[in-house]
Description:
2 copies of one chain form a homodimer.
Chain A: H1 8-13, H2 24-35, E1 58-59, E2 64-68, H3 74-85, H4 93-96, E3 102-109, E4 116-123, E5 132-139, H5 150-162, H6 165-168, E6 170-180, E7 183-185, H7 189-193, H8 197-206, H9 225-228, H10 235-246, E8 252-254, E9 258-264, H11 265-271, E10 277-281, E11 286-288, H12 295-321
Amino acid sequence: MFMPKPPLDHRDSLPNNNNNNCSDVCRRHLFLILCSMLKVPDHQVAGHRAGDGKLGPLIDDSGKFYKPIQSDGRGSKEVAFYTSVSSYTNIPSHIRRFFPIFHGTKLIEASDGSGQQPHLVLQNVFSGYLNPSIIDIKIGSRTWYPQASEEYIQKCFMKDRETSSLALGFRISGLQIESKGSAFWKPDRKLIRKFTAEEVRLVLRQFVSSNSSADSGVDPDCTFVSTVYGGSGGILAQLLELKEWFEHQTILHFYSCSVLMVYGKESVVKEASSGAEVKLVDFAHVFEGNGVIDHNFLGGLCSLINFISEILTCSDVHTAKASLQDPKNYCYTNCDTQN
Amino acid sequence: MFMPKPPLDHRDSLPNNNNNNCSDVCRRHLFLILCSMLKVPDHQVAGHRAGDGKLGPLIDDSGKFYKPIQSDGRGSKEVAFYTSVSSYTNIPSHIRRFFPIFHGTKLIEASDGSGQQPHLVLQNVFSGYLNPSIIDIKIGSRTWYPQASEEYIQKCFMKDRETSSLALGFRISGLQIESKGSAFWKPDRKLIRKFTAEEVRLVLRQFVSSNSSADSGVDPDCTFVSTVYGGSGGILAQLLELKEWFEHQTILHFYSCSVLMVYGKESVVKEASSGAEVKLVDFAHVFEGNGVIDHNFLGGLCSLINFISEILTCSDVHTAKASLQDPKNYCYTNCDTQN
């Protein structure tokens, strides 16, 4: 097994920890062994980040993702979800593949140096990609659930109204788009949070483009649109599979859950196959459906599907009409006149 | 033209009105002529009702429905909707048929005796039915729109949480179900407002049953389920047509808008055809979609569709297994094990 160097933030944070009964020498020894296997993920776009003494997820080189089990109840709810989801025999296998594989829970040295803490052990969904382009999209116009406290409801209610959640039925929570080799365009989260509908549309086009995303003056060329979004194995087809399930499933409601979209530009260029994948992540607020479909998730998912469908359709229009050089035909403005 | 007697509530309300410049004799004359043509609808299940000196809609015998144009802005917004909808050439005709036909606006004697008031003149969607069974379902888990005042948002927010809107993505606003001839079961609106998911499920089964709906001890027999909900022209097929449009249309967002479902039991018995129809009504809160689908309406519509699909599926299961007399097979409990 490849043994990477322990990340600096782990070694730095060790001496300040006094939370367990192991001797300092013993702890240091254990820590160095564990750290030699665990590291801060390179490709995390949303959620709490490890590093600088902060608690966040870690990965190893065998394709596993270690997510700290948050102590405020959310962690245990997510564990309950992963534990119970295998018992739902009525979730078909073609839907199960959208959930990261669950490898149980494990006590590991936490990234904030607070000693051994319980972690969810999950599939690292990015481990198969060299330089993955990733978008994390929180689905649903409403991220709060009826059972929540009034304080939590009001907090989410505000955030849903401030972000694109209310208008679009989803919001982008994080993203990185490969620009040159291992360089990424990774806009600040505060910027992402303020995305308007037009900016979301632009980013979803930049995601499948070969030209620079960081330069706002450059029109995305949508070079990879048909390979990444289109085709029988593309992102749109996967989202439509999910939609078909959400139209009928009444067993689970997913609040504040994200759709991850990931692919590797190199694969598209070298193998003419994007390896594009859709995954569902973040299940700290999943509740029983009690015989009702998750109309909040479904509505948002359909909205995302429509954005992506339009980009695909517009790209066809754009390609076909490019020679006319008529700006009205360009999909960034709006080519949706068939409705 | 058939000239029905003026309704009592009109004649009673006349002498108290002093709001226009017409002399009493002139007004009485005009009023009697108008009233001989206009009457309070027999089959109104939701919204403001005319009668007892109150402002509400009226109908005539030519199949027209006169809806007072509310002065608080909602009326003018609904007029704007009906006026502009004909200009949306990208609304296909198979979708247009879900909107009541618009015959313009007209000054008529208002039902509250306040003199001549502007009214929307619409198709009376119940005029073709002798004793229609009707359900009015307000679609969307959220009845407020982002542009509304904070006071209005909070009012709707409360109501959505108190009713089934939040949980189901829709709420029943009113209903009448024919029980014997021209007798109807028409539960009180306060009762309807408190419907739980199970009660909504029950009512949607009672709607297509031949046995008494008023007696809560009687299990609905779902006699008419395949004719009313099922079939190529049934309610489910019509709702699916609407859904297909809402998955793509980004031109209009419908807040606090209702789906009306109507049919006549007599037609089913005599003609083996229910004449079941779906209509969209109440457009006081319709806004431009600005390139985004109406995920709020779509989510709620999909939820309603799932309720009705389950009743259809369960009825098949019930029919097939009735001889086993196993109460677990009975669809009211839950036959949704395929998800």
